[in-house]
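Hi R.,

Here's the input for the iron/sulfur cluster complex you asked about:
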Amino acid sequence: MTCGACCTQYRVAFHWMESDEVTPGGVPHQLTEVLDPHRLCMRGTHSKPVRCVALDAQIGVYSRCTIHPNRPSVCREVDASWEYGKASPQCDKARIAYGLDPLTLADWRWRDEAGNDDGHPDDNGNSPSSPPQAPVAA
Ligand code: SF4
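And here is the predicted structure with iron/sulfur cluster in place:
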């Protein structure tokens, strides 16, 4: 949703077992710091102003988690409001902090017509007006 606000509002803390130092494919340990004997946190989220070191974003314009496949469990648990049929108080609070309206069910209607080339991630270059893709050599 080009947002990223939640990655600048909350401390992102998780058990040290999620680090890639002990769990292959886990959270890159160089992007974390020790919070207490049991927990790590993402660098940039320990104290205010909060901004996760893994976030590449201009809030409300574009947003990308640079470690998305390896992000901590707590990040996976914060849904965007109404993405899965219910509001998320954490999402709403983070967006409001930037003057953005909370998401509504209507913000997800683009998924009803997958691949309709409306600029959403479901387009995947497969819709009729997408630029032609260069053939891939065998
Ligand atoms: S790890 Fe990724 S999803 Fe989690 S707070 Fe950082 S940028 Fe956001």
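One thing worth noting: The chain is about 10% helix and 15% strand.

Cheers,
M.
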